[in-house]
Amino acid sequence: MGYQIGNQCFSDKKIAENHYFSQIIPTITADGKLYQPTYTKTQGWQYEGKSIQISLPECSPEQNFKDGLEVGSLFLVIAVVLWATSNIGGLLNRLTS
After folding, report:
1. pLDDT per residue over 49-77, tens digit each?
2. Which of 3, 15, 49, 70 could make a disulfide contact with 56, Cβ separation 3.0–4.6 Å?
């Protein structure tokens, strides 16, 4: 099983957490104080000195690939049908003229 962030499925939880927390936009208050999550190798992700964790939905990289393959094959079939229809129509026009 993997961990889902948006439409991406990551096989490793640490990589998924890094992707998620690194996308958080820092906030600067009116008095100039900077708020942002920070990462250290020994303590992991922290916010204001406190350790933070995230609960991520599970996903399957293999299933994501299969779903993409299924959608892609549908578009390929449509493209082939349109191409064949166009060529058959042109061939019939040449034969009848």
Report:
1. 899 999 999 998 888 889 999 999 999 99
2. 3
- Could you tell me the pTM of the whole model? 0.64
Same domain, 50 and 68: no
Quick one: 1 and 42 in the same domain? yes
At 90 the three-state DSSP class reads helix
- With beta carbons less than 8 A apart as the criterion, state whether 59 and 7 touch: no
Q: What is the DSSP string of 12-78?
A: SHHHHHHHHHHTSPPEE-TT--EE--EEETTTEEEETTEE------EE-HHHHHHHHHHHHHHHHHH
Same domain, yes or no: 77 and 53: no
Type of residue at 90: G
How far is 74 from 94, CA to CA, in rounded Å?
A: 30
